[in-house]
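Why do we care about 3D structure at all? Because function follows from shape, and shape follows, mostly, from sequence. That is the central idea of this module. The next example makes it concrete: a single protein chain, its amino acid sequence, and then its structure expressed as tokens.
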Amino acid sequence: MGPLRVILAFLVAAACWAAPAGAREVKLVLAQTKAAAGGAAVDGLKAIRITYRLRQSGLEGTGTTLTDVAGGRVVTRFRLGPLAGAEGHDGARAWVQDQAGIVTVPAGGDSLARGVSAQYRQAMGYWYPARSVPARIDLRLQLFRQRIKEALEITPNGGLKFEIWFDAQTKMLDRVIEEGASETRTTIFEDYRAISGLMVAHRIRSSNAAAAFGAERIVTKVEINPPITDADFAVPPAPKPDYSFARGPRESVLPFRFVNNHIYVDAKLNGRIFSLLLDTGAANVITPTVARALRLRSVGDAQIKGVGEFTENAAFTRVASVVLGQVRLKDQLFAVVPLEKLGEVEGMPFHGILGYELFKRFVVRIDYRARVLTLREATSWRAEGAGTVVPFVFNGTVPEIEGEVGGVAATFDVDTGSRGSVGLNSPFVQRHALRVRFAPSIDAVTGWGLGGPVRATVARAPRVRLGAVAVNDVVVDMSLQRLGALTNTAPSGSIGSGLLQRFTVTFDYPRQRMYLAPVSGPVRDGYDRSGLWINLGGGGFRVDAVVEGSPAAVAGLGEGDVILAVDGKRAATLTLGDVRAYLRDASPGTIVRFTVRRGAVTRDVAIKLRDLI
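And the structure:
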């Protein structure tokens, strides 16, 4: 949190009236607002430290923010229930430290642009242009709740555009509005008090479009021009390991199950075995069912967004012991999210996720062909024979690589939790008119995850490049979502296990490298030939979506139908994953016979599989 956020108040709101203004008015507003904030006292402000009570996600705690105003550097440290961490900007790069002390330096998505704008605000570049990059500043008048606001639109070179709104009468700043790749965030400052000649807000609220994602800071202490050093803002060193290996080599080798293109490993949580999804695109999660089984107390009331159009509630807990083969991790933070219904999607009980926290600690090798996962201590691992190196940066906590799809340059999150091969976000698809470029195509439900069903236009791209590695004839899902992660403007999309399974993949998070070693096997992505999306339900396989004009649609199958048998075999004797694989891999022309119940009527239906794309 920079001094601008302390001295000024910022706001996002719908406008009902606006009028343009020129350069002279911009200079006048800047002069008047600086005078209102403290005038000469602002000139003398070199650093500021604020301490506050923090409320967020149904939790309460404390935090401290120290800002080097002249240099635009900042560091925030907080403790919030079971959560603790820090984040900062050292003048050149942003960094984030998690509750275990592990540091990530994000540079993917819009991280770099967001950092430029944050540094500009922290250095108060609108009042002191020499402290930051050049910026374009425009002004408009805006009526909001019967008060006129003087809204500055600021676009720093290389940064994100943001707005600062001043109250036209008091000249105090109301709010800042910044639209990023994944959300629009608003910060509101209230309860101004005079401190050493400066007007400092003592109540600070921040939120995005959903109030449940908000935070409130109540300032309890303000220190003007405290002593600062470079070490205050530097990227923190690596912490001591919070894991240990059993005797022998510093590695752990585990078998995994590959279900619906998802990787499941057995983990002992506080001595009990649960099957957890391995997901580079997520954080550690357990379900409330698991938390109750382990008698864990969860706290908080957060909201989590996923690929679907809905959010889920989340709380937090700590698991004292997590054992994966020969390695044991202690005191691990988990989100507690009600994802039990994903068992209907996976065809097996859904217990939770192992995510970023695991990958950040080890070099992780996924041998899709042998169904073996290897965790190796990073300090002793060597890359020889691992395959072609693909450098990545972090988009938050997710690896992001450069590449291309169908000759169009792109950036991809690498998401082992995605069942597809390539998923493209809707803004990228629209910007490059990819639905015209990639044909033939169908509109279909292509997945089902946190937030509900995922809908996309599905086609084939002749070539996808991942760093220096080229892959031919790849199924791409072009998002039709209106909300959720698949509407983000950056990155372009994601790479999932549908494509990664063509390789033995090694993730080296500490050095920000992924290695791809190709394996023998099919060179063409398979795709469902029935036109069905089925989940468990109703005593069989419930039809939850049907592709228009597909074999299933021609045979009269519809949403809500329940498949009781496949080729004479009762659904109870089959697994959902095996049925999906059969409908994908059986040869075109194969006749599949279903026994289907609709309401009180049961009938036999035959469909003839064919390629849909």
